[in-house]
Amino acid sequence: MSFVEDARAGIITDEMKQVARQEGVTEEFIRRGVAGGHIVIPVSPYRKVKICGIGEGLRTKVNASIGTSSDIVDIDMEVEKARQAERAGADTLMELSTGGDMVEIRKRVIASTSLSVGCVPLYQAFIEAAIKDGAVVHMKEDDLFRITAEQAKLGTNFMAIHTGINWETMKRLKNQGRHGGLVSRGGAFMTAWMLHNEKENPLYSEFDYLLEIMKEHEVTLSMGNGMRAGAVHDATDRAGIQELLINAELADKAQAEGVQVIVEGPGHIPIDEIATNVQLMKRVTNNKPFYMLGPLVTDIAPGYDDRVAAIGAAISSSLGADFICYVTPAEHLALPTPEEVYEGVISSRIAAHVGDMIKLKKTRDLDLEMGHARRDLDWARQFAVAMNPDRAQAIRNERMPADTDACTMCGDYCALKIVNRHFSF
Ligand code: SF4
Fold first, then answer.
1. Which of 145, 162, 169, 398 is 20 to 30 Å apart from 239, CA to CA?
2. 289-336, pLDDT tens digit by residue?
3. Which fold has domain 59-359?
């Protein structure tokens, strides 16, 4: 039986118990969530991982995507990125290499992390076709499904699969145009392949076969967002909505077949459209776990896109997004470094926490503790609660005041110290 089928049969697995403990909810809550398709726990029969639950009633989780490009292939650097992502507190990792020996790189990254790992099998299928046969449009359908199964056997826990791009979606895209073009690599590969071969997307037309592979290897299916907006002026457009409707229907089918499923969302969205996007996603997918990519809330801050995405992610999370994909400061500019991966994860973790303070009120406990620690000038307690204690401690140590109770911001005129002398809170 698959994980979903276990849950439906009333079986509470060890993984469900672990998630219940982590989240402070009952085991039955988790079992029902998995059975009903509102919670996923990406597992793999091929590899033990640090278990994490994603979905309704759970903390917002953060994914870090890494991987080589055709220009920069450095396996050691990718392994270091995996290490930095885990050190910074990412919940999952996506290995998205498109350059070098993609199989070897994936094996090394998977071996170097205890996190659940996601991948996008069509990258390898299209890129191998480009290398062997001269162009991505020569990709063979059998190769796509073979590579999907091979990647599952490497111990990947979830896969982004671009099922929602079909002729209907393409018609919408053609009729409406786009300000920011098509920014999804998977979306671009599949669109080019369909137009050149005049054939339907095999991930859509052979969805039943895809589900067999997902179920056999217990991979969580992440319905890919190939039409996501790459510019705020394209947010919530017809092509994106069309793809969402197709993905929502297929996600129901996957769930019914006993496959765990997540639905991906956009992209670039101005703040006033985030609520609409989250509500629409949740409504049409029957409350499946929602994986928000960013969203970036403005297009004009390259170099700071981790912060731009964190603003969107915090709002999305507060409204119900369950899983957010980090963005690094290098987004739109270059392949990120390990340091930028670390920064990106921290920015996203802040966003997830800010969102959870609204979505799950109980997570405000740490903020209360920090408030008290600051009031009491208890620096050890402040660092213990801090999201990144090393950075906080390093900044303070660099500019330590003469009076070690206060800090160099106000020095002798530390407001807390002055009032604490005369007033007990
Ligand atoms: S010196 Fe100012 S900023 Fe620093 S702890 Fe005191 S009140 Fe806060």
1. 145
2. 999 998 999 999 999 999 999 999 999 999 999 999 999 999 999 999
3. TIM Barrel (3.20.20)
- Beta-bridged to residue 203, according to DSSP, are none
The answer to whether residues 299 and 49 touch, using CB atoms and an 8 Å cutoff, is: no
Judge if pTM exceeds 0.85: yes
Convert the pLDDT of each residue in 344-365 to its tens digit. Answer: 999 999 999 999 999 998 779 9
> How big is the chain, counted in residues?
425
How far away, in angstroms, is 410 Cα from ligand 1 center? 5
Q: How far, in Å, CA of 232 to CA of 147, rounded?
A: 34
DSSP code of 268?
B
Q: Which of 62, 91, 94 is nearest to 78 (CA)?
A: 94
What ranges do the domains of the chain cover? 59-359, 366-422
Cα of 407 from ligand 1 centre, angstroms: 5
With a Cβ cut-off of 6 Å, ligand 1 is lined by 406-407, 409-410, 414-416
Percent with pLDDT over 90 in the chain:
92
Over range 77-86, report the average pLDDT: 98
Pairing of strands 39-40, 54-55: antiparallel
How far apart are the CA of 414 and the centre of ligand 1, in A? 5
